[in-house]
Write a structure and sequence with these properties.
about 230 residues, alpha+beta, six-stranded antiparallel β-sheet, about 20% strand
Length: about 230
């Protein structure tokens, strides 16, 4: 991936965001990738890196934009409570990343391109990582109770950042912002923040997660990934 630190250095947990942490997987994954790409550009250009971005400070920054922040994420005080804290991976995450690309262009004189596609394969993830790109994957966890709304939706939506595909070990290695359980984290107490970590999923479990179809494709289409392609 050609980054100056081990991938686990970039780990953050969505539970670090006050009030809305349980739904902040897309926001957190976006911040993880932002930190990766800004370090990559600084390293390649031999320039000082801008400070790391914390997901809690990024969410607060977007909240401070009030309704104009709706382009990037539903504010934490959005009138419709179920939407609070959501960043939609198809509609809002690309806008947030493109805004960051403009900031990096101003800072470094170069930045990154963005590509989002569906119907991908594990090989597409592996090739992009091999090429030095950064990847976010969007999928759904299984929900088995027919009484649950998420059962009708197709599953529990989630976004993660894969860092390696280990075909020999039959697993995908990821930065998963929902591990450990975000509900055990007190955003006001850094002592509860988990240590940097990577998580593994078996290839089959990962493909099941990535390939589930959400209701009317409202989250993403099956096998969707967002790829950040550095200019360097």
């Amino acid at each position: 991936m050609n980054i100056p630190y081990p991938p686990e250095h970039y780990y953050q947990n969505q539970g670090m965001v006050p009030k809305t942490g349980l739904v902040e997987c897309v926001t957190t994954s976006v911040v993880i990738v932002m930190n990766m790409v800004k370090d990559r550009l600084a390293h390649d250009l031999d320039k000082p890196a801008i400070p790391d971005i914390g997901v809690e400070e990024y969410a607060a920054k977007l909240d401070g934009m009030h309704l104009s922040g709706l382009n990037y994420r539903f504010p934490s005080d959005f009138p419709l409570v179920p939407f609070r804290g959501w960043m939609l991976p198809v509609l809002q995450a690309p806008i947030a990343l493109k805004q960051f690309a403009r900031e990096l262009e101003h800072k470094y004189g170069c930045s990154f391109k963005l590509k989002q596609t569906s119907g991908n394969t594990l090989g597409d993830i592996s090739q992009n990582l091999h090429d030095g790109n950064f990847v976010m994957v969007h999928g759904l966890w299984p929900v088995t109770d027919p009484k649950e709304f998420l059962y009708k939706f197709g599953g529990g939506p989630h976004t993660m950042v894969p860092v390696d595909v280990d075909s020999q070990a039959d697993k995908v290695i990821l930065l998963n912002p929902a591990e450990p359980d975000p509900s055990i984290i007190d955003p006001d107490n850094p002592a509860t923040y988990p240590a940097p970590r990577l998580d593994n999923m078996s290839t089959q479990d990962f493909l099941d997660f990535w390939g589930r179809k959400s209701l009317l494709n409202l989250y993403t289409r099956p096998f969707t990934m967002t790829v950040v392609i550095p200019d360097t």
